[in-house]
Every structure is written in structure tokens, then in C-alpha cells.
Amino acid sequence: SPSLAKKLKSVLDAIHKKIEELGPEARGFATKFLEEDPEFIQKQRGGKKMKPGMVLLHYMNEYAKLSPEAKKDFSSKFPEVAAALSDPLLRILIYASQ
């Protein structure tokens, strides 16, 4: 429906605006996290199908590699995502479910 498409575009525009406001390191991560195709990651890992939890773990590991400044920058725009990506309990649950 046109109204749903308009709402979706508005949400995506808001996300992209937040990404543009990030510093270079955090922006690079955010772009990769929010726009990268999970199938691309699978191809990078030998073409094996990755479970959804393992895709999330991939991004958790990438987030962990960011500098403290980039993590702070990212969490200022995407606090819920940053909290999930740095949650040790979530990491344990992912490993336990594999």
C-alpha cells in the first residue's frame, strides 16, 4: 500500500540520516551492519549456510573490534542495537543454541 511504503521510506531515511551523522569508523560499521547482505557473509565463509545466530555473532565480533570512541558514537545513535551487540549473555545464548 502507498501509505505503508511512505512510512517505510520515512524510517529508512531516518536510519540513513543517523548513519551519516556518525564518525568514519562507526559509520563504516553501521553501513556494513545495516546494509550488508547476510548471504554475502556466507559466501565469505566458504559458502556454507550460516544460522541466523551465527550471522549476529559475526556482527557482535565486528562491533567488539571497534575503538571505544566508535562504540560510544554508534551507541549514541543506535543504543538498543549497541546494547544487544555487546551483551555477553546474548553471546552465550547464541553459542548454546548452535
UniProtKB/TrEMBL annotation:
Q: What is its main location?
A: secreted
Family per record: Belongs to the fatty-acid and retinol-binding protein (FARBP) family.
Molecular-function GO terms, alphabetical: lipid binding
Q: Does Secreted show up as a keyword for this record?
A: yes
Q: List the InterPro entries hit by this protein, alphabetically.
A: Gp-FAR-1 (IPR008632)
This chain's protein is named Nematode fatty acid retinoid binding protein
Compartments where located:
Secreted
Q: In terms of domain of life, where is this protein from?
A: Eukaryota
What's in the keyword line of the UniProt record? Coiled coil, Lipid-binding, Secreted, Signal
Annotated signal sequence is none
Q: Which GO terms describe its cellular component?
A: extracellular region
Q: Which organism is it from?
A: Oesophagostomum dentatum (Nodular worm)
